[in-house]
Amino acid sequence: MNEYTVKVETNKKIIQRTENAFMRPNGGSFIATMTIRAETRKEAVKNALLWFWYHYRGELGPAKNTLTVSDPRHEVSYSNTFSCYSKENRYLEDETIERLIRESCGELERDNRLGQKNHRPGCLKRIKRRRKYWKCIAPTIYQSESGVLYYRFISQAQISKSGNILQKRRCKIIRLWSKTVPHALHEIRMRELRTEHKTRKWVKARSLKWIAFRAGLAPLSDEDRKYFATIMPKGLENKV
Questions:
Q1: Same domain, 92 and 186
Q2: Could you tell me if 86 and 173 lie in one domain?
Q3: What's the pLDDT band for 25 if we cut at 50, 70, 90?
Q4: How is residue 73 annotated by DSSP?
Q5: Of the residues 92, 126, 160, which one is the last residue of a structural domain?
Q6: Which end of the chain has the least Cβ crowding within 10 Å, N or C?
């Protein structure tokens, strides 16, 4: 078990509810401190929030403005997968916030936004939003970094006349519950997602043919092989 120090600090005048609460001489700020034993900081934050809402019952406002949990073992550190909204990365002390800003090399900054109801900001935020780049594993099928499959289709076809665009093309993405390409192909047919694809029928049919070929479910005709020759991986040219 590890020990974490929980501190509540505010300028509001409230009734002291805990034995560890006292009044700071300069300014009369209310401070309450306590020690929590937990295996990880995430567990300590969870217990600190339960203690905070049980004792103060919303008198002090959002916990983000008054509650801090120490990080004596430096469990909170910056990495490429750092999430500003994870519970273990919230309610940080000032020295921990400054350390994370230095470790991020300019990617993080203090989050001073007011937030909205049920959507409270954290202690830190990214200066630039991280973009998610998905991998195209088959026509109209994309895979995220976590392995989730998505079906990307054209919801609104582009319309142009005499070189002028009258209507822009729009795309949508639907999450698939399948884990492999063969199962994804079956799911697309069962859910009739092809009907959502607003494009020429021969393009939709050929897309599904390519998916079935890569999944090993059906061969390609000679005409389709010529069509997909530019994207055919090496070693599959003669695959039946």
A1: no
A2: no
A3: very low
A4: T
A5: 126
A6: C
Helix or strand run (H / E) with residue 164:
strand 164-167
* Whether residue 46 has pLDDT greater than 90: yes
The secondary structure of residue 119, as a DSSP letter, is B
Torsion of CA 60, 117, 70, 104, to 10 degrees: -140
For residue 168, what are its two tokens?
């822009």
Last residue of a domain, one of 126, 160, 180: 126
180-216 b/e with 16+ CB inside 10 Å = b? ebeebbeebeeeebbeebbeeeeebebbbbbbbbbbe
93, burial (CB in 10 Å: exposed 0-12, middle 13-18, buried 19+): middle
Same domain for 104 and 156, yes or no, is no
Give the CA distances from residue 42 to residues 38, 90, 98, in Å, rounded to whole numbers and listed in that order.
9, 9, 20
Does 155 share its domain with 100?
no
Amino acid at 104: S
